Structures are given as C-alpha cells and as structure tokens.
Amino acid sequence: MFEHIHINYLLATYGYWAVFFGCLLEGETILILGGMAAHQHLLRLWPVIAWASLGGMLGDQLLYWSGRYFGGRLLPRLSKQKAAIDRVTGLIARYPSTAIFAVRFLYGMRLVGPVVIGASGLSPLRFTVLNALGAVVWATLFASAGYWVGQALESWLGNLKPYRLPIALTVLALGVTIALIRHLRAKAKARRG
Description:
The chain is mainly α and 193 residues long. The chain has one domain (2-192). The protein contains 8 helices and no strands. The chain has helices at 2-25, 28-39, 45-74, 82-94, 96-102, 112-120, 124-157, 164-192. It is globular and about 55 Å long. 35% of the residues are buried.
C-alpha cells in the first residue's frame, strides 16, 4: 500500500514536470505514461498535452538554433547519424514544411532533425510555427494513446491501482526495448550501407 501512495503522490506532485522534461528530451514513453495517469485521474489530460507540447516544442527549438549557429561544425561530427542526416536533408530539399512538421514522428530523427533543419537555413518563423503545430499534434496523439491504453487495461483488469507500478515499468521496458531494437537495426543497416 505504501508503494501505491508513494507513486500516486509522485505522479500528482511531479507528473506535469516529468512530462515537460521528458518531452523536452525525447518523450513518447513518458507521454504515454502521462496519458495513462490522466485516465487514472492522477493528472488531467489537457494539461498533460499542454506541458508535453511545450516541452517538445522548446526542445526542438533549442536543437534548431544549435543547428542554425553551429550546424556547419556540429553535423560533420555526427558521423554515426549520417543516414538520419541524409534522410532529413533529402526531406527538407523536397518538402521543407512537411519535414519541419513530421521530423518528430520519424524514429531516429527527433534529435538530429531539428539540428539539420536549422543548419539548412530554413526561416526561424516558419520553423517555429510548424514546430508548434507538430508538437501539439504529437502530444495529443501520444497522450490520447496512453489514455486509451489505460481505458483498455481497466476494462480488462478492472481497478488499475494495484497494477500502476507494474504497468509503468512495463511501458518503460517496452519503450526501451523498441528503442534498442531500432537502434541495433539502424546500426546494422549503417554497417551494410
């Protein structure tokens, strides 16, 4: 019982900050957990979406400005990310607005994408507007997915209070496993190509 009270307290007290900082860096796993917490009434869904949007947008803005000012020196040092850099560069050349909006949805592009876009010289205003729109759509989709997962689990398991910690750990483990598999596949693809 102490574990559940402790987790509830942490989520209620620091949940929005966790969503904000988690989305500032990467975000999908923490955002799904935030949506599940909203389903359990530990957080509210709209503030989860708002904090995630803000964190995601600010993180990408910082990366964009890093690329704008330091891209010429920074990108050559990211040799392990060459495939991602080439992919984003090609996307920018063909569909610049779509690249700005969609880069956060493309696995492996979330961190390097805004840097490449900044280095490409695309307008800061254009980036800011499309980045904000992309952040809101991204946060809404992933937080809603977490909310619906919470609803599905509740209909399957009943009261989720006893299962909160195992569910959170399972979602985190799945997120890490998927990221690791994708990373290993990308690494193997880079070695072949």
